[in-house]
Amino acid sequence: KAGVTQTPRYLIKTRGQQVTLSCSPISGHRSVSWYQQTPGQGLQFLFEYFSETQRNKGNFPGRFSGRQFSNSRSEMNVSTLELGDSALYLCASTSGAGEQYFGPGTRLTVT
Amino acid sequence: GESVGLHLPTLSVQEGDNSIINCAYSNSASDYFIWYKQESGKGPQFIIDIRSNMDKRQGQRVTVLLNKTVKHLSLQIAATQPGDSAVYFCAETPPGTYKYIFGTGTRLKVLA
In which band, very low, low, confident or very high, does the pLDDT at B4 lie, cut at 50, 70 and 90? Predict the structure, then answer.
């Protein structure tokens, strides 16, 4: 069974731009979560989607948004990028039993 | 955002010794816990999980212990190998929240 895939793996953007990251969960998993990982703040929860509905959201500004499609693939969008948004963005898919598996992440650098 | 701590503790062990990595979780209602291993440049890798109705679970060379009384989780790695060098995170999930809360992480260094 293929794991969680994320695209792109690396991205460089300029302040003020927007970015869209994509995640394909493990086949059969309907829950997708997004996390931001930085050296200073560790792994922080962004949001979780299940069957195209956002069920929970972390404490991030409205510039961070996401969505999930009917095939469970998910995207997250960050608008008006700031230098502090530079991070590793991780997507995780969760089985019905609660086992959560991560993708390799997208490394976003904002200059 | 929700995350614990800014400093990453480090555990150094000799190759072949057993390692014990500890984690204090935050929510007494959490009913499911996972240990992850993260190597440099990679996403966290699922190692082992445990539910709150258990106090011990064993995998291949790893054992997770759960002490709900003091909200403590530990990961024991037997016969630690150089390939075990990584950052280890524990994660908890309170029921009905659909989110996982991660600990600070512990860096494990295996000395040859």
Answer: very low
Q: Chain A residue closest to B7 (CA)? A: A40
Q: Are A72 and A29 contacting, i.e. CB atoms less than 8 angstroms apart?
A: yes
Q: Hey, is the C-beta of B31 within 8 angstroms of any chain A C-beta?
A: no
Omega before residue B44 within 30° of 0, cis? no
Element (H, E) at B89: strand B86-93
How high does pLDDT run on average in chain A? 95
How far apart are alpha carbons B33 and B49 in whole angstroms?
6
**What is the mean pLDDT of the segment spanning B39-50?**
93
Tokens 């929240």 -> residue: B97
Chain A residues touching B32 at Cβ < 8 A:
98
Q: In whole angstroms, give the CA distance from residue B95 to residue B17.
A: 36
Contact at CB, A58 and B49, closer than 8 angstroms: no
Inter-CA distances, A102 with A75, B5, B15, B29, B44, Å: 15, 22, 28, 24, 6
User: What digits encode the pLDDT tens for the residues A58-88?
Assistant: 999 999 999 999 999 999 999 999 999 999 9
- Check: CB of residue B93 under 8 Å from CB of residue B100: yes
